[in-house]
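Table 4 source record.
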Amino acid sequence: MAFLLCSISACSDSKPQVVAKKRLDYYSEIYNASDLKTKDLMGLDVDLTEKDQPYTGVVKVVLAGRSLGNGMYSPNEESWLMDDLAADEYIARVVRVMPFLRNFAAAAYGKEMTLLGGGSFGRLDRLSESPTAKTYLFNLIRSELLPGPNLHQARIEHRMINVDASRVLILGGITTGNAPALEVELFDARRGTIKVVGKMALFRRDFLLTRLPSGKILVSGGIGNLAHEAPGDLVSTVEVFDPVTEKYFVAGQLHEARVGHSAIVLPEGAIFLGGRVPDEGGQQMESKTVEAVLNQ
């Protein structure tokens, strides 16, 4: 199995070369931002490369004249949820007396439940804080907060994303002793358990989780720790969680490591756009490209 990498010219003119020891699940193409054309369902042009673009509807995606069909522009759902929780007076009141005080992650599952987990451990009268493995289950309808199962790794600066109506994927961040939290965990609401389903290839923070219509989760970009994949420790490795097999694996590398990016979700993959990429001096600059990572 191999992950295929190619430039725009190589992809359009000939079959990409197979890269040894990679999976054949996805191939990657990089384009100038001007090659991305999108229209909403009414046929009106939509500029999704504009910073803080609020459009969230279905669009028709065309890259360099090749139609990729309809896709859903998917901003960071987690940030919306965290904003909602921060504005909720009940949650704001309860968080003040929780063992963890800030930087927890959250993901909704089903129509009324949210998993809150990890974050800083330590009460207001303590000087030191450390990552916690504690989780809580919050019922959005009843405003009820209950203890959840503990994480296998205490963590902070991690990410969560709902896989389906009953499961939440938990990964990334820092664990006790300022060490990287590499275990990938899966919360199952039906069983009330959290189990380890794999291990990240490398530490990353500020990365993007993209859920495809197939249910697979793409893990892309972010900032690593001595990753040596790109200047400034930006991460190019793409990893994938398959909810059917509950397996987590490396799928290959992006052409341009990036952080702070977003995605257009397509049935066969995703297009990453925006964010920052490294320049030759190792500093971060605004990205001038978009990158398609599509199922083979």
